[in-house]
Amino acid sequence: MSERLAQVSSHLTNSYGRGLLNGEVAIITGAAQGIGRSAALLFAKEGAKVVVSDLDEKKAQAVVDEIAAAGGDAIAVGGDVGADDFPEKILGATIKKYGKLNHIVNNAGFTYDRMLHTLPDDAWDVIMKVHVRAPFRLIRAAAPHFRIKGENRENRSIINVSSTSGLHGNVGQANYAAAKAAVVGLTKTIAKEWGPFGVRANTIAFGYVLTRLTAAKEEGATIEIDGKKVALGIPGAKPPPAAANANAYPLIPLARPGTADEAAAAMLFLASPLASYVSAHTLEVTGGR
């Protein structure tokens, strides 16, 4: 057995009973609801100490309380990921509480859809700010906790959330598609620059996953950005059928949308030692679409 395989095997043997991420520390942004919430709960179940970050600090604290009630360890850090002081704020809280950092999951985001010919500058700029600039600034600020020299390295990774819109484009999402495409290039560069320090960097591209971003816009979900309310969702979206239905989803071989828990499970795989030799990869979680 090779030395690296022995290390992975030893990690799984010693830690699996206590979780795939036993003793590791993970920052997850946008973790108060949807995929981020599911990821926070799952990472905590797998032994991670989770920093639950969200624009809505009360909802983030509710997730922390849920983790604590299940015997896990987590803290809430509220704030806008696009704010200039956000990286310092969240990293300061993380290191003060846990003394280290193993994983960053850049999950926070939203859609601000407009057709290309009617897309205003502010809708372009804010999507780039939240989906590209914010992850870049957080990762850059975290460099001292990842670019660690030496042989005895802990499992460490960066996971940036993209979308099939970023890989293939999508009608009404020129801003979102461009931002999510940029995330792929950013991630591949991190993998090349930080790989020598044992850091893995991967992108996860979700297809149709049931969240407030894919619910009917008529349901009225909104997010407040820079004092302005932005409507979330897809106009006229219908609730999914109770069972898998090929007629309802002809482009999805599994014939159904994904759940937030399924999306979170893919994140766990990329963060875990099961993906110890997976880096610079874009994992498409699409039901086969």
Top keywords for this entry?
289 residues, Rossmann fold, two-stranded antiparallel sheet, globular
Cα-atom radius of gyration: 19 Å
Q: How would you describe the oligomerization state of the chains in this entry? A: single chain
The count of β-strands is 9
Mean model confidence by pLDDT:
90
CATH architecture group name:
3-Layer(aba) Sandwich
CATH superfamily: NAD(P)-binding Rossmann-like Domain
Which overall shape is indicated by the principal axes computed on the Cα atoms?
A: globular
Number of domains: 1
CATH class category name: Alpha Beta
Tell me what portion of residues adopts beta-strand conformation.
15-25%
Report low-confidence residues grouped into runs of 5 or more.
none
Explain what you see.
- The structure is a single chain.
- The protein is of the alpha/beta class.
- 39% of the residues lie in helices and 17% in strands.
- The chain has one domain: 3-Layer(aba) Sandwich (Rossmann fold).
- It starts with a helix and ends with a strand.
- α2 crosses α9.
- It has a seven-stranded parallel beta sheet, with helices on both faces. A two-stranded antiparallel ribbon has the order 7-8.
- It is built from nine helices and nine strands.
- It is globular, with a radius of gyration of 19 Å.
- The longest helix is centred in the middle third of the chain and has 21 residues, at 121-141.
List the helices and strands and how they pair.
Elements: H1 3-15, E1 25-28, H2 34-45, E2 49-54, H3 57-69, E3 73-78, H4 86-98, E4 103-106, H5 121-141, H6 143-146, E5 156-163, H7 164-168, H8 174-194, E6 199-206, E7 222-225, E8 228-231, H9 260-271, E9 282-285
Parallel strand pairs: 1-2, 1-4, 2-3, 4-5, 5-6, 6-9
Antiparallel strand pairs: 7-8
Helix pairs in contact: 2-3, 2-9, 4-5, 5-8
